[in-house]
Amino acid sequence: MNRITKVGIHNIFTDDETAFIDVDSPITIFTGYNGIGKSTALGIIHSTISLANRGEYLFPRSNWASQIFLLDGRILNHGKVARPVSDDFSPPQIKNPQKEDSLKQYFTDLNSRILPINKKNKTLVSKDGEKRDLRSTNVLTIADSSRVKKGAAATGIGVQSLLYCDELFNFNQDVDQSERLEELDIFSKKNTLDKTLYLLIIEFSMVETKTNFNSELHDLIKQIDELFSDSEMPLSLRERVEDLRSISTPESSFLTEVNIFFSMTGREIFYTDEKMLQLRVKSRPKESVEWFNLSKGEKTLLCLLLAAYLNKDKDTVFLLDEPDLSLHIKWQKQLLKSLRALAPKSQFIISTHSPAMIGNAEGEKIINVGSFARVK
Ligand SMILES: Nc1ncnc2c1ncn2[C@@H]1O[C@H](COP(=O)(O)OP(=O)(O)OP(=O)(O)O)[C@@H](O)[C@H]1O
Ligand SMILES: [Mg+2]
Question: Quick one: CATH architecture of 4-175+315-372?
Fold first, then answer.
């Protein structure tokens, strides 16, 4: 599996200086004072990976450059400046990416090739010729991921990222269905946590139906159930049907993991016949709660766990900005352990202020982002 080993960020923590952050651990935890740059660092990493995958993450912060070192030897570069470019603009190349001051050089080069903002010059033109009004966005994005070490895969960069920030999920690719979903009654435009959860539940249902589900057996059980809908099933038959039912839907590792959390609150997540996830309160086993009626913390937790489980084999770097925000302290203590269990080969870079998030999972490395800030 490919992953990020090191990140270089220029002109964020200290003016005109590059900070190199070693993230070569399964879990890297960013800590540090408010405003020290934790969310900015996660946003920059996500922007850089999105761009290298030909996607875009509209990240408002500008005037920085970044370098992402991947395990397979690739180095992704990205710079963002809030100034217009001339028609003959060409992005600078990083000359010797392994050198400590290469980002500084690149940033200086970049700044020398862009124009000052003036009243006439209100449009930014990207490298691909796309125009943007300065009042709606203030970024120009320049990428250079051309330096590929021999032997690296020919297509794609082999790493995608998922950013959870401000309690919303941002995938590398824009979720196409997102707009279509607005036609559904239950979605207001802003309600993207719900949208994310819905899409993840549908994806989960499709994946599980394919892999963990014996549909013939399931149909047979359904027929027997219908046959006895008005009368009592003989005890011996009922026992056999219950046995078959458990074989037809073997317990998924996902359900086992997710119910570590829900058993703490007297609840349980289970599958419906259509493999949709639903919640029930253990003391009222006959009633179930639809996914859109779950609490905010329950939705957030399910999204985080589903996203990890469904992307576990896709070289995904999970960038989670304060994932603990709506979770009880006991859930916080379990979160990284479970994410790691569901996606053991994935990489997690997390920011938090919560001591409960730290020290519970294997492979953690804690970085105080404040150590990169220096008063000149
Ligand atoms: N355009 C800008 N130029 C300079 N500084 C900026 C700009 N935009 C934001 N900042 C500052 O950058 C700092 C870093 O913000 P960031 O959101 O990364 O902090 P954080 O470590 O995530 O903090 P918190 O723990 O409060 O979430 C803040 O002080 C913010 O005000
Ligand atoms: Mg933050």
Answer: 3-Layer(aba) Sandwich (3.40)
